[in-house]
Amino acid sequence: MDPCFINGIASISAQPTTNPTSFLEEIISYHQPIFKAKDPDYKQYISPATMRRMSKAVKMGVTAATMALEASATSIPDAIITGTGMGCKQDSERFLENILHNDEEFLTPTPFIQSTHNTVGGQIALGLGCKAYNITYVQGSVSFELAAMDAQLILSEEPSKHILVGGIDEVAKNSIVLHTYDEQIKDTDAVDVMNLLNTKTIGSVSSEGATFMVLGSKKTEKSLAKIIDIHTISKATPDIIQEQIETFIIRQGMTLQDIDTVILGNNGDINFDHYYTSLQTSIFSDMEQLCYKHLIGEYPVASGFGFWLASKIFTLNKVPSVLKVNQIKAKKHINILLYNQYLGKDHSIVLLQKC
């Protein structure tokens, strides 16, 4: 696919990441396995009357999308493409609880209408008055990447367009219980999240967030980064992943020595972090290595935060020490590779380049 440019990006996460002038100078340290995103002032972007009917996912999505559009100086996008792993879980659970409590009678349809996975994309379109292409990808932990790949395909055919791409997932109480039972979340009341990557126990920590970006085929004065290529893999062993990454880099006409920094999705789950550590001690051993899930937690579209991180690093030419997991410091930040997986599947490899 043809490369494209990130012309504006915004992220709402468990850290204070909505201030465009700061870059992880202030860090919130969590001590529980489940924590929520730090809310910006939603009233700046959504009217109080409208916000009353919105779930957390919708509020985060609409706000992050508005911030990204403003950053790119885009009023109405030519397409809205969203990704989510679980959709609006809070409204889904509310509707199912009403079915049980009311014996399937006298049900209000509102929670059901607002619980669908494409609710966020629809709300963004309604707020903007945008009647363009609008689709949602629900593909586990590669939902964000597939949304970006769809945008790349559109831009390769219609280069003049500006496309809004984003990912959203929220915390919901019943889903948290289920994920604790199947060992996706650490079974403990307290965990030092800042030490997450060294816990060596089963499961990770759970959180929520939203990342949105505006993509275009041409570089502008607003451009932050260039998406060179994205590759996803359903299931693979660590050895195959290493081969795939090497092939991916060669396909770009590059070598491993051309990669300045890698941003990895380590999440402290001893059952699956070996996908990362095998790379960290082999082909990535001479590179600057960064991780972020000890700051924002794990959720299906958490990998979108890596796009935000790389864009900030390119723009500010600095790396907050809280991200570093080895002692190597890159001499420059021109090419950044992102790699993420979840539960040994839904692997994504992304190459971003400084504009």
TrEMBL record:
- Positions of the Beta-ketoacyl synthase-like N-terminal domain: 44-171
Domain of life (superkingdom): Bacteria
InterPro entries from the UniProt entry: Ketoacyl_synth_N, Thiolase-like
What Pfam families does the record point to?
Ketoacyl-synt_2
Q: Which residues form a coiled coil?
A: none
Q: What is this protein called?
A: Beta-ketoacyl synthase chain length factor
Q: What is the organism field in this record?
A: Aquimarina addita
